Structure formats: C-alpha cells, structure tokens
Amino acid sequence: MELSKEKLLWMYERMQLIRTFENRVKVEFGKGKIPGFVHLYAGEEAIAVGICANLTDADYMTSTHRGHGHCVAKGVEPRGMMAELFGKATGTCKGKGGSMHIADMDKGMLGANGIVGGGPPLACGSGLTAKLNKTNQVTICFFGDGASEQGTLHESLNLASIWKLPIIFVAENNGYAESTPAHYHCSVENIADRASAYNMPGVTLDGNDIFAVYEASHEAVARARTGQGPTLLECKTYRFNGHFEGDAQTYKIAAENEKYQKERDPIKLFRDNVLARHLVSEAEFKAIDDRVAAQIDEGVKFAEESPFPDVKETYTDVYVNY
Amino acid sequence: MELSKEKLLWMYERMQLIRTFENRVKVEFGKGKIPGFVHLYAGEEAIAVGICANLTDADYMTSTHRGHGHCVAKGVEPRGMMAELFGKATGTCKGKGGSMHIADMDKGMLGANGIVGGGPPLACGSGLTAKLNKTNQVTICFFGDGASEQGTLHESLNLASIWKLPIIFVAENNGYAESTPAHYHCSVENIADRASAYNMPGVTLDGNDIFAVYEASHEAVARARTGQGPTLLECKTYRFNGHFEGDAQTYKIAAENEKYQKERDPIKLFRDNVLARHLVSEAEFKAIDDRVAAQIDEGVKFAEESPFPDVKETYTDVYVNY
Amino acid sequence: MAERQLNFGQALNEAMRQEMRRDPKVILLGEDVAGGADVDHLHGDEAWGGVLGVTKGLVKEFGRDRIIDTPISESGFIGAAVGAAVTGMRPIAEMMFVGFMGVCFDQLLNQGAKLRYMFGGKAKVPLVIRTICGGGYRAAAQHSQVLYSLFTHIPGLKTVVPATPYDAKGLLISSIRDDDLVIFFEDITLGAMKGPVPEEPYTIPLGKADIKRPGSDVTIVAIGKMVHHALKAADELQKQGKSAEVIDPRTLSPFDEEAVLESVKKTGRLVVVDESHPRCSMAADIAATVADKGFDYLNGPIKTVTAPHTPVPFSPPLEDHYLPNPQKITAAVLSLF
Amino acid sequence: MAERQLNFGQALNEAMRQEMRRDPKVILLGEDVAGGADVDHLHGDEAWGGVLGVTKGLVKEFGRDRIIDTPISESGFIGAAVGAAVTGMRPIAEMMFVGFMGVCFDQLLNQGAKLRYMFGGKAKVPLVIRTICGGGYRAAAQHSQVLYSLFTHIPGLKTVVPATPYDAKGLLISSIRDDDLVIFFEDITLGAMKGPVPEEPYTIPLGKADIKRPGSDVTIVAIGKMVHHALKAADELQKQGKSAEVIDPRTLSPFDEEAVLESVKKTGRLVVVDESHPRCSMAADIAATVADKGFDYLNGPIKTVTAPHTPVPFSPPLEDHYLPNPQKITAAVLSLF
Ligand SMILES: Cc1ncc(C[n+]2csc(CCOP(=O)(O)OP(=O)(O)O)c2C)c(N)n1
Ligand SMILES: Cc1ncc(C[n+]2csc(CCOP(=O)(O)OP(=O)(O)O)c2C)c(N)n1
Ligand SMILES: [Mg+2]
Ligand SMILES: [Mg+2]
User: Fold this and answer.
1) Is C327's Cβ below 8 Å from some Cβ in B?
2) Contact between residue C153 and residue C202 where contact means Cβ atoms under 8 Å apart
3) How would you classify the pairing of strands C270-273 and A202-206?
4) Residues, CB within 5 angstroms of ligand 4 (ion)
5) Which residues pair with C248 in a beta bridge?
6) If you measure CA to CA, which chain A residue comes closest to D135?
7) Which residues of A124-162 are buried (b: 16+ CB within 10 A; e: fewer)?
8) pLDDT tens across A275-293, in order?
9) Where are the beta strands (DSSP E) in chain D?
10) In this prediction, what percent of chain C has a pLDDT beyond 90?
11) In the predicted model, what is the mean pLDDT of residues D77-95?
C-alpha cells in the first residue's frame, strides 16, 4: 500500500511524540513530579500510530492502563496530558483522572482504564451509537494479552459480532501481563486465533512494523465503516520498560529484551525502511525530532507551571448530597 | 461402544426418573404446592444421564438453574429433591435453597445455580482440588447455550486449559436462552467450535441420542482422569416445556416443537433403539416405569407430609452477628 | 370522572413509551426486552417484553433497532449502555434481577459511576438501569435481594425505589431525563399493584421524599414495598392512639434528609424500615444521619426494622419470618413509647 | 531483649508461610503471587511475589503447585478458589486491589457468600481473599477505594481490616483457619509500617475489637489506617484536656458491638472515622448501632468523619482534601464539647 509522504511524516512524528513523551514521563516520575502509577507505552508505538493513521477525530477509541500512546496517536494534546499526569488543573481531566484515566471526548478518546478488560464493553457502546445513528464512525478497542483472559472481552467480541458493530479489537500482545508471560496465561498461541470463535476475521501481525499494522487496520476500518462488522487484530510487540515504573523486570529474558530494544524498535524499523526507500530524508527526521523535543519540553514546563486544582473541585463533576 | 445391560437399564431408569420427576413438578407447581421459579429439564434427559453414566459419587458436578435432571443423574435422591422444592425441612438443603439451589455434597453435586454462568468458575475449583490432591475425580460443568455468552465461561475454559484441569464442559444447547434463539445470541453456529480458542478438543453432537453423548463423554472423562485436561462437548437438544413454568412459549416454532416432542424424544429414541436390538424387553421397561412412578409418588407424599423448617433455621448455616 | 388506574408495570411501560416518543435518543436494551429476536413469526405483542412483561408491546411501536434483545452478557451490554450514553444516546438497560448485578458490577462501580468525575466532567452518563428487586416471591437467595444499599454507597450512582404506580411513572421519566446513571428498582411483588396514574407525562424530582401519611407521634421512614407495610402499621398504631407519619424517600441517592429531619423534629421518634440486610444498609444510613443532624429532636433510640443478616431463605415460612412486616414495625414503634 | 520488628507485608508473609507449613490444604492463588510463571530462569526470590511483594519467597519454599499464578480472570480464579474451598482446600486468593472486585463480584455475592446457607449447611467455604485498599497513594479513582462497607453488607462474608503488623499477622492466621469466606483488607499506605510481631504463630479472634488507647471523654472508633489518624488526634486532644478512647474494631463483620457500647457508656460521646464514602458506610453502620442500643449513654450527636461522596480524585491536593486526617477528627470531637 502506497502511503503519501504527508502520512509518513505524520506517522513518524506521532511515534516520536509518544516515545519522547514516555521517556520524559519516566524522568519526571523518577524525580517525584508524577505521582501514582505509570505504565509506559515505549516500544509499542507502531500499533497505536499505525491504526490511528486511518481515523478522524470523530472516531472513537477505548484504551487501557497503558494509554498514553493511544491518546497521543488519537490526537490528544501532549501538554494537557503531561499536566494531567502532574495532577494539574490544566490537565486533560482537570487533574482528577491521572495517568490511568486520561480521556478526551473531543478526540473520541473514551478513556484509559485502570480496570483490565474495562474498555471492550464501552467500545460496544460507542459502536452501537455509531451504528444506530448511521454515522460511519468506527471504534478502536485496545487491550493487552493479559486482558484477553478477561470475560468482558469475550462478551464484547460476541456482542460486536452479532450486532455487526463497527469496532476494531486490537490485542497488543507484548508477551506479558505484569510478570506473567502470555505463553502461560493464554491457552492459544495467537490471540487472533480466537476470532473464529466469534465469526469475525482475525489477523496476527508484527506490531512493531507500522506498515503491517496500517495495512491490516486499513482493511478492518473499511470493513467497519461499510457495515461489515468487527475485526480482531493481534499485534505482537514488546514493552521497553517495566510493567509500571519501579518494576525490576526480573522475568524478562535478557537476550529478547536486548533484541527488541536494539533491532526491533518500531521507530528504528520505520526510519530504516523509509530511508532505504528514500521517501524521507535524515534532515526531515531531524526537523521532526527537534520539534517533538521542543513540544515535550514545553509541555513539561506547562505542567510544572500550571496550578493544582482548587480543593473545591473535589466536589464537582459528580452528584453530592448529604 | 458396547454397553452392558445393567448400564442400559440404569440409563433408562434415570431418564425415566427425570422425566417423571419433572412432569410431576409441573403438576405440583400448577397446584401451587411448589413456590418460586421452576425450570424443567424434560426433553434433555439423554445429556445428563449419558454423561453421568461415566461417573462415580466421588466425581463433581456444577449445574444451572435447570438442574433437576443433573441432580437425578448424579444420584441425588428424588424424594429429598421434591421435599426441597416444596420448601420442607427434609429437603436436600433443608428447604433453604429450593429448585435453583439444589445441591448434595455427598454426591459431588455442587449446586444448581440461579446465576447464568455462575458454575464454570466453581468447576475450576473442584477441578483444581482433584488435580492438587492427585485423585482422579473429574468435574462435569453443565451450562446452556445462553450461558456460553457469559464471560465467566470464557475465563473458566482458558483456566481449565492452561492448568490442564480434569473438567468436561458440557454445553446444553437447547436452542434458546429464555425466549432468545441461539442463532441470534451466539455468533457461531456450534458452541463447541469455540474449543479451539482454548486449545481443547470440542465436539458437537446430538444431545437427544444418549449413545452419542455417552461415547463422547466417555472419551472426555478418560482424558480428564489421565491428566490430559478439559474437553468441551456441545449437546444439541430442545426443551419440552417453557423456559420456566408459566412461559407462553410464543417464540417456539410449532413444527419444530412437535417434531422434538414426537420424534426426537430422547427416551423414545433410546427405547426404539434398544428394543430394535432386542437388548431390553418391553416388560423390563414396564417394570422400570412402574418402579419410577411409585418412587415419584412416594417422593411427593414424603414432601407433602414433611414439616416446614422451624423459623429458627433462618439464622443457621451463616454467621450472624449484631 | 374516576382517575385512571394502572398497575406498576403498566405505569413503567407508559413512561418508557412516552419518553421514547419524545426523544429518539432513548433506546432500550436487555435480555428478552423485546423477546424472540430473529424469530420470524414474532412481530408484535406476543413477544415477551422482558421476563415480567413490563416492556411488552414497545417493540411493536419502536422496532428492534430501539428495543434491543441482548445475549446473557451483562458486563457486555451494561458496559455498552454506558458507552452508548457517553457517546450521546440515552439508554434504558434492563438488568432483570438486581441479584445479577454481580456479574457486571465493575461496569457500574468503576465505569458508569466514575467516568464523569475521572474525565473532569467532560463526559456524562445519561443511563437508567431498571432492575427487579425484593423478596416474597419464594425466589430464594440469589433472586430475592434488594441490594440498593450497595449502589447507594457508590458515588456517581443515583438510586430510585418507587412504592406506587404513580411514583413509578414520574420517577422513571425523571430518571430517563437525568444526566447521571440511575439505578431504578422495581419490587417484584408490587408489579400487579394498581393505583391512579395520569396519562400525560409528568416528572417527580429525584431527591424529594413524599409524606405518604402525615402523623405527629413517630416518624416511620420506609422504602419501596415497605411503605405499604408501614401504612398498615400506622393504621394499627392509630387504633392504639399513636399517630405515625410515614415518609417514603423514593430516591435513596440523592436522599431527602430535610424531609426526614423535619418530621423527626415534629415527632421526636424514628423507626426506619428497610428490606435490606442490616449491616451498612439504608436503614443504618438514615439512622446515622438523624443521630448526627437530628439528635436534639430525638426522645429515644432510633429503631430499624430490617431483614436479618442472612441470605434470603427459600422455604415460605422462613422467608415470611425473614421479611419485615407490619407487625414488626408496630412492635418497633411501640417500643419507643 | 527488644521485640522483633516486622513491617506489615512481612507480618502477612510470615502468617501465610506458617499456615502453609502447618496445613498442606492451604494454597495461594492470584495474579503474579509467585510471579513469572513458566519463566525458565526464575526460581526463587527474584520473582514478584504479588504486586507489592507481600508473597515474595513463598514459591521458593512451597513450589508452584501451591503458589499459583493466575491469568487476569478474576471471576475465574476467585470462583475457582470458592470451588476449591467447598471441595476441601483452604485457599488464600490475592485479589490485588479491592477496586477490581467488581469484575468477580458475583462469585462473592452469590456464590462464596451464599453456598453454605443455600445448601442447608452442607458446604463450608474456608477461603481468604486478601486485597489492597485505601487512598493516599495517588492511584486515582479505581485503585484507591476501601469498599469494605459493600462486603460488610453481604451476609456470609467476614471482613477484616488490620491496622498494625501485629494485628495483621494474628488476624490473617485466624482468617485462614476460619471456615467462612473472609475478605482481608490491606491498606496500601501501611505496607511499610513497622511494629513488634512475635515469631511464633498466634491468632486474634475475629469479632474482637481492640482498645488502641484508653480514654474517658469521647470514644473514637476508627478503621484500618484511620486508627493512626485517630491516635494522632487523641494526642492533640489530650493537649486540649480531652481524653479520647480509640477503638479499633479490627473486624467489621463480625463486629464487636459490645466493645463500642461499653466505651460510649463510659464517655457519652462518639466519633466514627472511616475512609469510606459516607452513604451506607461502616461509619453509618456503627453510628446506627449506637443510636439504637446506646442511645441512653449519649450526651450529644454521633459524628462521623468519612471521605466525601465522590470518587477518589487523582491530584494530590484534592486527594489530601478528600481523605480523613487527624485535624478533621480533632475538629469533629471538639464539636461535641
Ligand atoms: C481487573 C483487573 N485486574 C488486574 C489488574 C492489575 N493489572 C494492571 S495491568 C495488568 C497486566 C495487564 O497485562 P496486559 O493486558 O497484557 O497489558 P500490558 O500491561 O502488557 O500492556 C494487571 C494484572 C487490573 N488493573 N484490573
Ligand atoms: C447472570 C444472569 N443473567 C440472567 C439470568 C436470567 N436467566 C435465567 S435462565 C436464562 C436463560 C438461560 O439460557 P441457557 O443458558 O440457554 O439455559 P436454558 O434455560 O436454555 O437451559 C436467563 C437469561 C440469570 N439467572 N443470571
Ligand atoms: Mg501484555
Ligand atoms: Mg438454552
């Protein structure tokens, strides 16, 4: 599939934005600026970006605890996200949600989710809305390999199938649920092999190859937009960091970790591919890298300088009566 | 597979016992003697009996809201069951459980269940006990076509598969979940086709043919007892009565209903088969029929004449503190 | 002209029908809410319309696009209802028996109830979940629960428990028009109860209690079906020369503290009647509120009449013993004099 | 000789280790409770041992047959724990955060809690579910809940909330030996707290409160982490000439009513401190009990100090504002004088 240069540059910029965002979150978390739990997406950028390259702001997305990358790919502003992670009033959710609950309805981003398997039922809801209103919005439902053993996923796959909902279910199989390997927790080798149990197409692919992700999701999105129902895509990948910041990662296999970080880095793979085909120049990449770095710096500054929410905000956005 | 005459007679007696029990429950419910909800198993007898023909009292079973047949097949005493349905102190559960919660630990019967999909996780538990204690007890986990869309089933199938638990999952596909046809609520034609999603054998068979049920479950039980893990059996069947007593059954297709009741009655199929092969005589059948009728009459009498539990029983069998 | 009488189920049906006519965003989903999906010969009123027939006939008027039968996937379809609400629909989901809420509890506790807050107010969840509750039907431990205390504990959820057909219609219409997730409890033994119900749509505000019977010697706060027991007890008490005021909170969250405090101020005595298990119950909640904010009005202890801290037994004599009734209420009231 | 000091996590680990040595029927299951299942190079102490490391090292002693990692299938493995308990094992299941209980709620509400009763006493469910609770970790709305009020509402469940390493060990051993389903709450911010813990196994009876500080002017009942806030408040109150008695119920169900009533009889004043949302909470439960059975002892209203009726906010200043603290407790107490 031929991609326009504009799209290639967009892809690179979004991936780089996620990577730079996540690396910076790691630093700020280490400094104690970001409280709570953070789960970094670095290493998996090709999935969110490859898929979101098919979408508009009107399309929906449900996400997971590892949601920063999904947000950025869907177009949520990194500065608002950073402010949210800092717990500031200028954050995407006024500082009330934090890393695990980042959401941006204006971008169709229906929330990261602290509950593994919490998202798929919600995705059926946005899918139902789109279907009933006969818009052609699609919903992307991200979930991890660990989430594939959660009953809610099964219910949602069946529901989406019988109602022919415009949903693309995306399994981000990074090989682990916390410290538990997928080959232990999952009874089948490929999560996408379960698609047949719901009478929908299932594709297992290299999640670090953005072109493979883009192509497969392009087809799935087209199916969804034309009323042909859901698809299950499984993107095999690897996370560069621990499950959360602070994880000693003793369960990782050193050689595999090294291989992924050095040879299978999705951003490197993209660069090498595109450079080899002379589609984008080093200078163009450099310009993007600089812009992204500046954007993230600015975002951190914005987050740092923003005020915390007023304590009265504790009582807003919910019904309180007593 | 050759079956001993003893086994054939046992099968017939158990099926007839279930049918007679259920027909009588219908009558007593109509008279107002049995309160609450009852869900009758008539028409599906070949499944419970065909499977339980492979078991001993030490084996476990989890059941559903439509559990009378499972109980009888597992050897629970019909008189205690009838007394339970009447809410009497002599009931299997002292009258505290009723139709939807009949259980008998002495027979490994871990309870009917008012929650659709409530049983499969429990079955993983008895399976785990047997595995850890290295006994060769198996667990039969019954569930309906409707329950196959409940997330708990999916979780349990995966768990049983990765832990190689000695469980036979038995889908009783009677075509309907309440008034909703399986071809609407289920995204695949055969529930057993989902077995591949959990890396276990799956077999779809005629649930009204007790020989087919017996053979398939014989193999599955042998697999389970020898540590080879779980199997998913789907038995296609039909319920002769409404979802519960009181259901007008407007959703049923008249011709199909008629066909099942007249031509596909599992007891009739068994009789015809065995008579044609001259394995059992009409007289032998008659003797069983008479014995069964007397047993159920006696059971109803027992239930009628038994006392209700003392109101103090409200406070026993549970921790109460205040 | 005599007032029109409807039973509880009819009142609810009419509320949904009128709201669905008014607002195309209102949809209904649940198990067998139409009934017989994909059954060729079922086109109209013969279909189930929910397990108790409350939604019967709606599919004939609104079609299967808006009256949607679901598989037995409560997490799936309740979550879908939350997701549809967040993206612009106003779903009504039928959750059959409240005892089944356990299978989809996360979608209520952590999704539906919290999204608006966690998203900094950028989402709203205009969803009503209708569910059957209550004992007395001999439906045993799993099918006879009330459980509204659990949902009242959770911020972000509103809980509504009507006691009459009139209240049922007005409260359901308000719930449908509300922008928060409302759990609407329909007592199984009240389903056939008749009462006057105006034909035109009307609303009853959430958070407004109703004085079902005025009185001066004791305040009886009773919830749902318990209101009728309390009224019977009040009759009996009248004969014994005690005037009881019976207050029906109608909605538990939000809760009309003021109405209860006003009444206790007048009567000096409080009995709370609640079919719940006692611990961390609505009965305890109301008692605690008054023990704090109305302490000075009280002449004596606050009594609660609840079910015991046991599951609901199946056997009829045990279940009768388990449930609150007019006699127990009368006794509790008399203990205060 | 100085008493041995352990932190909360170590005390829990030791309790499990000792019980597993004593009784081969005790097994442990949950997500990453060993950690790294099927990872060839992980054989011992390097494995996670649960998300906070509380079960670290147990797999080395007891092997992967008894320390069982599970998929993220909470209904599946909690239900399996119930089923294993009913068939003769004594499982301990780790349910990571209490906020996740929603995904397996039915297995608690309708299975684990009710089987014994529904089966007429023929089953028992000797299962302990350990879970992390509490705010203050900046873990936001889904990961900072306490929720013990929900479980205390449900008959058939016992609920235990230890406040010190000593209590944690003794209560966990009792819970493991108990024949009912016990939910055992471990506050996330207490994990590193140290205190004296005897090495030999010992039990603390479920249903027995502990007077953490004797006093005569006011009774403060505080739960879990709140005990420490209450003790701080008591120090401050002492300076102001008020003697506060701090009672730690330790188990919420069963609940030691007698201890609380005794104390209020002496002090005439009651403040209940509970990190829960206020509605249908433990705070309300305790207040209601005293408003009924201890009314005559009271000199004034019963005050509760709870979190507000909102989800837990993420932002640190909001969360700090949200949580009860010593100042709020002191203020509540002083309002009674
Ligand atoms: C219902 C529930 N159970 C457990 C957890 C704790 N938890 C958070 S992330 C996680 C692992 C998820 O693994 P996976 O789905 O593969 O996603 P990944 O972290 O690899 O992106 C677990 C167990 C949770 N948040 N929610
Ligand atoms: C969790 C839950 N949801 C819904 C119900 C109501 N209900 C009881 S039986 C039933 C249909 C079950 O269908 P199926 O599994 O096919 O079993 P069958 O009745 O056909 O034997 C439903 C929806 C329930 N008891 N539990
Ligand atoms: Mg993973
Ligand atoms: Mg069925």
Assistant:
1) no
2) no
3) unpaired
4) B 144-146, 174, 176
5) C210
6) A36
7) bbbbbbbbbeeebbbbbbbbbbbbbbbbbbbbbbbbbbb
8) 999 999 999 999 999 999 9
9) 5-7, 26-30, 67-69, 90-97, 128-133, 157-160, 181-187, 194-196, 210-213, 218-222, 244-248, 251-253, 270-273, 303-305
10) 96
11) 98
First to last CA, chain B: 60
Residue in the block written with tokens 């591919």: A273
Low-confidence ranges of chain B (pLDDT < 70): 322
Q: What percent of chain D has pLDDT over 90?
A: 96
Q: What is the pLDDT of residue B138?
A: 98
Q: B157 and B233 in contact (C-beta within 8 Å)?
A: no
Q: What is the DSSP string of B258-289?
A: HHHHHT--HHHHHHHHHHHTTSS-HHHHHHHH
Nearest residue to C17 via CA among C58, C46, C54: C58
The answer, yes or no, to whether the previous bond of D308 is cis (omega within 30 of 0) is: no
Distances (CA, A) of A129 to B282, C87, C88, C91: 62, 7, 7, 10
> Chain A closest CA to B165's CA: distance in Å?
12
- The model's pLDDT over A80-107, given as tens digits with 9 standing for 90+, comes to 999 999 999 999 999 999 999 999 999 9
Which residues does residue B180 pair with via DSSP β-bridges, in sequence order? B177
Whole-number percent of chain C with pLDDT over 70: 100
SS3 C253: strand
CA of B176 to the centre of ligand 2 (A): 9
Q: Which has the closest alpha carbon to B56: B136, B111, B119, B128? A: B136
User: A177 alpha carbon to ligand 1 midpoint, in Å?
Assistant: 6
Query: Considering only CA atoms, which residue is closest to atom 19 of ligand 1?
Result: A177
Which of C20, C66, C70, C75 is the best residue to mutate to test the A interface, defined by the most A CB atoms within 10 Å of its own CB? C75
Give the model's confidence band at A320: pLDDT under 50 very low, under 70 low, under 90 confident, else very high: confident
DSSP string, D249-281: -SEEES--HHHHHHHHHHHS-EEEE-SS-STT-
What are the structure tokens assigned to A33, written together? Answer: 């600026």
Q: Which residues of D touch C295 (CB under 8 A)?
A: 298, 300-302
- The pLDDT score that the predictor gives to residue B322 is 56
Q: Answer whether residue A53 shows pLDDT above 90.
A: yes
The count of CB pairs under 8 A between chains B and D is 153
pLDDT score recorded for residue D42: 87
- Residue that the structure tokens 């198990």 belong to: C31
Q: What share of residues in chain B are helix, strand, coil (percent, to 5)?
A: 50, 10, 40
CB D200: neighbour CB atoms within 10 A?
A: 5
- Single-letter amino acid code for the residue at C154: I
The predicted pLDDT at position C206 comes to 98
pLDDT in tens, D217-229: 999 999 999 999 9
User: What rounded mean pLDDT belongs to chain A?
Assistant: 97
